[in-house]
Amino acid sequence: MQLVIVTGLSGSGKSIALRALEDSGYYCVDNLPARMLSQVVEHLQAAGHQTVAVSVDTRSTRLEELPSQVHELKARGTDLHLLFLESSAETLVKRFSETRRRHPLSDEGRTLAESIQAERELMCELANLGHRIDTSELSANTLRSWVKDFIALDHSGLGLLFQSFGFKHGIPLDADFVFDVRCLPNPHYDPVLRPFTGSDEPVIRFLESQEAALEMLSDIRGYVEKWLPCFVRDNRSYLTVAIGCTGGQHRSVYFVERLAEHFRAQQQRVLVRHRELA
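The chain above was modelled as a monomer; its predicted structure follows.
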């Protein structure tokens, strides 16, 4: 049986992710108490369910037991993958204000901002156990698409995710490594190149004519190649490498596509995301 645990910060899109999994044929359980995870998995496996998704969050009692249950289920051979959703504090405040929902941790006299920070600290251990998605700049449709890409990925070994972004929209919270390519010539300032992206041939030709761009690409590729085995030995399931330029349309997109192409050729499991293009 394949088990996907959906967790993360309140307001970050867990319900959207769970519905995307349900649409993909998963048997879904929402707001499962953490201490009941093992029993529910055993019951659903005995009932013949092959793909199951459960949502566990701060509404659950005994949330602190979830990491140990995750390790125990993996040790028993369960094909388990944890999906952790998060957003910036500013985005979460805006979402709660727009929907007028109460935050689950607001019962203890905290402000909304204090509740969000308390939840982030409470769940930091879980964030390190799985694949993180920063939903701050994502539409619901994009999140659904990224969740479906995630479950379609071959999960044997370490998954390498390359993500492009624009610094003017903020650095992705889910990045393990961040590389800045803003020092390179910007195709945005060429009126002919501006409408294209880094995956289009005119922009590719422009950047590959720049010696500095090719040298930086080689350096980043060499850095990831050098340190990737260290993360494999550390039993990491996913590693996110974020490449940023000013707007996230040209240079960062080109770098992500070239890096993904290289590591796929090395038989590495690779996932690509272009945040601003999405």
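The chain has a mean pLDDT of 93.
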